[in-house]
Amino acid sequence: MIHADAFIEIDKDITLRRLTRENAQEKFDLIVANHDHLLPWLPWADFYHEIDDMHGYTDSEIEKFDAGTAITYDIYYQDQLVGSIDFNHISEDDHHAEFGYWVGQEFTGKGIATRAVAGLTKYAFEKLGFIRVAILACTDNVASVNVAKRLNFIEEGTLRQYLQLPDGIHDVVVYSKLKTDA
User: Fold this and answer.
1) Residue 138 included in any domain
2) Quick one: which of 65, 84, 73 has its CA closest to 3?
3) What pLDDT does 87 receive?
């Protein structure tokens, strides 16, 4: 079972905080305000129609965090909720996981996602015992591709016609970083 900390300080401006029910309204509002920004790459943005939808998601993620089967954090920038980052598809036996992350549109261009991914990568290698982390991004999702490139993740290849999104099926590029790369 993976035991992650509830709070990770990335730098003077960015902290990662485990999900809580207390900030569910704030997160719901951020997702709703960024619906059009998120939807092209994250179809789940369409699923949040009322606060109870967020409560259900939050409760589920809290259970998984407590059980050590999922690691999901809210990203705070200068004490303001700006997005989310998680490890999905965790393989505890193989010591690896894939990233998921997003930030609200008004917070893009500040390096927040890049710094959050860098910090959580370091945490994964040093504290969680992971040996590999990966970013899977649609080839035309320039922002996510650039995060991987800025952090010197290695491009492993393209999964052709891998992901169905609202506008059609997309190719996905796989990037990874190994503990031995760091």
Assistant:
1) no
2) 65
3) 94
What token pair was written down for 75? 């990203």
Strands in 154-165's sheet, in edge-to-edge order, are: 7-9, 14-18, 71-77, 80-91, 96-103, 132-138, 168-178, 154-165
For residue 177, give the 3-state DSSP assignment: strand
- Considering its fold, how many domains does the chain have in total? 1
CA gap 172, 8 in Å, rounded: 29
Q: What 3-state DSSP class applies to 48?
A: coil
90: domain CATH number is 3.40.630.30
* pTM of the predicted protein model: 0.96
Query: Does residue 26 form part of some domain?
Result: yes
* Alpha carbon distance, N-terminus to C-terminus of the chain: 24
User: What is the C-alpha separation between 68 and 122, in angstroms, rounded?
Assistant: 18
| The pLDDT value given to residue 26 | 96
